[in-house]
C-alpha cells in the first residue's frame, strides 16, 4: 500500500469502522490502514476517538479509489448504527 496520497484513479483506499470504548462506531477512510490504526491508538488521529480509546477495528472495505471511498464513508455515516457494519461488509 502506498504511503503518499493516491491519485483519484488508484485503488488503494479503504473505509474502516472502529468500535470505541463507549461502544460507539467511528467510520473513516485511509490509504494506509496500519498507520491510521496506530494514530487512533496513540490519540493523534481524530478528536472523536481520542476521548473514546481504546478503539478496535470491526470492519474494512476492499480497496477503492479515493472518490469511491469518500462516497462510501458518507453513505455509512448516514446509516443507523445497526446497518453500518452490514453495509461495509457488502461493499466488497
Task: Summarize the structure in short.
By secondary structure, this protein is α+β, with helices and mostly antiparallel strands. The chain is 39% helix and 24% strand.
Number of extended strands: 4
How many domains would you count in the coordinates? 1
> How big a fraction of the residues is strand?
15-25%
CATH topology annotation: GIY-YIG endonuclease
- Provide the CATH superfamily: GIY-YIG endonuclease
What are the defining features of this structure?
disordered N terminus; four-stranded antiparallel β-sheet; globular; single chain; alpha+beta; 92 residues
Give your account of this protein's structure.
The structure is a single chain. The chain is α+β, with helices and mostly antiparallel strands and 92 residues long. It has one domain: GIY-YIG endonuclease, CATH 3.40.1440. Helix content is 39%, strand content 24%. It is built from 4 helices and 4 strands. Strands 1, 2, 3 and 4 form a 4-stranded antiparallel β-sheet that branches. The longest helix is centred in the C-terminal third of the chain and has 13 residues. It is globular, with a radius of gyration of 13 Å.
Question: What's the topology here?
Answer:
Elements: E1 11-19, E2 25-30, H1 33-42, H2 47-50, E3 56-60, E4 64-65, H3 66-78, H4 81-89
Antiparallel strand pairs: 1-2, 1-3, 1-4
Amino acid at each position: 500500500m502506498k504511503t503518499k496520497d493516491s491519485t483519484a484513479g488508484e485503488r488503494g483506499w479503504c473505509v474502516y469502522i472502529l468500535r470505541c470504548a463507549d461502544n460507539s462506531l467511528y467510520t473513516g477512510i485511509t490509504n494506509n490502514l496500519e498507520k491510521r490504526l496506530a494514530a487512533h491508538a496513540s490519540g493523534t488521529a481524530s478528536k472523536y476517538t481520542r476521548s473514546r480509546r481504546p478503539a478496535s477495528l470491526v470492519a474494512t472495505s476492499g480497496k477503492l479509489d479515493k472518490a469511491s471511498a469518500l462516497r462510501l464513508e458518507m453513505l455509512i455515516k448516514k446509516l443507523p448504527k445497526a446497518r453500518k457494519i452490514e453495509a461495509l461488509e457488502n461493499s466488497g
